[in-house]
Amino acid sequence: MDSVSATPVSPRAAPRRRYRRVPWSPRAWSQALFLAGGIPAQLAALLLVIGPAVAHKPRWALALAGLVVVFLAAPLLTGVQRHRLRATLGQVIPPVPVIAFRLSWSGVVAAARSWVTWRQLAYHLLAAPLLAAAAVAAIGAWIAGVLYTLVYAYAWALPHTSLLFRARPMAAVSEGLPSLLGDPVDAWLTAAGLALLVAAPWLTAGVAALDAAAGRALLGPSRAEELAHRVEHLTQTRAGAVDAADAERRRLERDLHDGAQQRLVSLAMNLGMARAQAMTAPEARAAIAEAHEEAKAALTELRNLIRGLHPAVLEDRGLDAALSGVAARMPVPVRLTVDLPRRPAPVIEAVAYFVVSEALANVAKHAQASQAEVFVQRTGDRLHVIVSDDGVGGADPARGTGLTGLASRASAVDGTFDIASPTGGPTLLTVDLPCVR
User: What pLDDT, on the 0 to 100 scale, is given for residue 366?
Assistant: First the structure.
């Protein structure tokens, strides 16, 4: 058996940095740039309505035509905004049901009767322009803060007609001022600039939070729709959990019947023959030795079966130690990385353990891989599990290999399951589980 490289990561080794809203923070600047980049998309619907009406006549007819265009293009505009929020703010908004044949008369009537359409129009025509104005104010705070803070560096070189023009500092001496600071207005501008730079990251973060909240409230499904989807999802996962439990019961019955039970039957037969036929001490010792070997084999199979149900090391020492044991028994090298500042709930630990165990078993049986890697990390209230290998790929849940069971296990605890395994490899299995239930 090849060696295993197990590299658990201590929580102290890579402490998570807290985001501080300071002017020199790269995240603050990137958030400001994201806000600036989203302004055109936020104003698109409003410009479609008022743009032609301002430029041409008759104004009311063009504004009405623009409203019709926005009404028909609402799903497209919503898709753009959902993608923007996901790419810039990491806000994933669930999709809403799509109305079939939207451009037909029946589709238009159905869209007009749907509250989803009116929530989307409220976002595109009211909330988005207001958010764009707030974003402009936040960007203006950044620009004004930089300009006012550095006023001493450039104001004296501006044209005399500029509002920020100031005389050279040395000119203040001839006018009897007590310092070389020049016009006292410069000091007030510098202080105002510093105050704006301090406030700008907080203003930017506030606008971004409002943007995300408005997107969740108006672009996604309503609370009632979310609850209905949740009920449907729970119904499906409950059925999947029942099927998984039934499949597990059948597997246990098969393993007991074909393994430990046959060993125990053979043990009983050997002991019976030793009792009935062994006339000499050597024959009795041979029969007893054979029965002893059968008993040890039966015990080994029972231990393996119990370990498959719920390993004691998982309950006693946690996921790190349990997965280290799984990796050590693999016939290919496995690199294991575990970052768990706090242990998740026992049921989540069990699901993660069986996901990794089954995934590595598939690697050993089907992948023809030379190495595999397991990464387990807890981030906030989510447990991320990634199993990858450099094998031949082609893993498909529809063809069995236990992947359907893994998906059922993950969905039973409201987790997600995803696998990417193109032909030729590599294979990447990702499971995301909730830590708080």
Answer: 81
Question: Sheet harboring 382-389: ordered strands across?
Answer: 5-6, 334-339, 372-379, 382-389, 427-434, 416-420
pLDDT for position 159: 65
138 found inside a domain: yes
180 token code pair: 């070389």
Q: 184-232: per-residue pLDDT in tens?
A: 677 787 888 888 888 888 888 889 889 888 888 888 776 666 676 667 6
Residues 45 and 194 in one domain: yes
DSSP state of 331: S
Contact 434, 411 (CB under 8 A): no
- Chain-centroid distance of CA 328 in Å reads 29
Half-sphere exposure at residue 335, Cβ-oriented, CA atoms within 13 angstroms: 10
Q: What is the mean pLDDT of residues 58-76?
A: 79
**Per the omega criterion (within 30 degrees of 0), is the bond before 184 cis?**
no
Rounded Cα–Cα distance for residues 135 and 204 (Å): 7
In whole angstroms, give the CA distance from residue 231 to residue 237: 10
User: What are the pLDDT digits (tens) for 250-264?
Assistant: 666 665 665 666 667
Q: Which residues pair with 432 in a beta bridge?
A: 384, 416
Q: What is the pTM of this model?
A: 0.50
Does 230 fall in a domain?
no
The verdict on 258 and 214 lying in the same domain is no
- Average pLDDT score over residue span 363-371: 84
Is the same domain home to 64 and 141?
A: yes
How would residue 175 be classed by pLDDT, with cut points 50, 70 and 90? Answer: very low
128 and 43 in contact (C-beta within 8 Å)?
yes
In sequence order, what are the beta bridge partners of 356? none
Mean pLDDT for the stretch of residues 377-399: 83
- Cα torsion angle, 261, 264, 268, 273, sign: positive
Name the domain count of the chain. 3
Contact between 424 and 393 under an 8 Å Cβ cutoff? The reply is: yes
Model confidence at 39: pLDDT above 60: yes
Amino acid at 146: V
In a domain, residue 227? The reply is no
Where do the H-state alpha helices sit in 181-311? 184-219, 223-255, 261-277, 281-309
Q: Could you say which DSSP state residue 397 is in?
A: G
